[in-house]
Amino acid sequence: MAALGTATPAERSSSWWAITAQCAGGLALYAAVSLSAALLSGSAVLGAVVSGLVTLAVVAAWRRWQRGTRTPPPPSARAHDPGFWGLVLFGLVLCFVGGQTLAVWIHARYGSSAFDSVQGAQNAVPVLLLLFALVVAAPAGEEALMRGLVYPLLRRRWTVLASALASSATFAVLHGNPVQIAVALPLGVLLAFVYEHVHRIWPVILLHALFNLASALVPVSLVTVLATPAVFCVVLAGAAAAIAAVHPGRQPRAAAS
User: By C-alpha distance, which of 107, 127, 144, 111 is closest to 45?
Assistant: First the structure.
């Protein structure tokens, strides 16, 4: 443990009170900026764009302040192996197919007025703005918030798995409807494990952007054909196996990353 005078802010603020306050502050900022921008502009998509960019900037400043003059931990040895990234991309594909088919099945069987509202807001904006929101602003803001802020804070007290599950559940619930929760939950766990290996947010932002780009490009009709319990159960089981293979194993708790 560093002496008080030389300790970073992260090393001086690992109590549950400090962790909870910082997580709540980040989530409140994200929601408040998104809602305010949406009300002022009349577009939920534009609100998400503004919120994503503001959150990225604030979290980047917070991370620099937390580390002080220290550099982030180096990536793990596995993160330098091309095979590891091949496994990550394979897991990403399985998370996409499994999550999307489950989401389509849930919507067809139970419906979701909240998801329909999201779709309506997306259909009401120009395509270029929607693509920017899906592929740039949303991945940047969501990953800055969840993997750049919430996950590292939880890791000060919890194991990799507990922190990944808690941050991913928060990430999923943040979407506000069961259709998107089905898509976001497995993705969040995979990205948390990747972050644990690299200790930087830009790789998980890129992976999230690829995931969202696929959701914009893959025809809904194709996903609908595959949206059966047999398919999504098998694919999600494969995704779980791939995610387990990416798990970094027993790692020390990080004070700041």
Answer: 127
Q: Where are the domains of the chain?
A: 15-246
**In terms of Cα–Cα distance, which of 207, 208, 196 is closest to 72?**
196
Task: Let me know: does 139 contact 223? Beta carbons within 8 Å.
Answer: no
Cβ burial, residue 62 (10 Å; 0-12/13-18/19+)? middle
Q: Give the three-class secondary structure for 256.
A: coil
pLDDT digits (tens, 9 = 90+) for 46-61: 999 999 999 999 999 9
Distance (Å, whole) CA 93 – CA 81: 19
> DSSP string of 144-170?
HHIIIIIHHHHHTTS-HHHHHHHHHHH
Rounded CA separation 164/149 (Å): 12
pTM for the whole thing?
0.91
Residue 165 contacts by C-beta under 8 Å, 6 or more apart in sequence? Answer: 189
- The answer to whether the beta carbons of residues 91 and 190 sit under 8 Å apart is yes
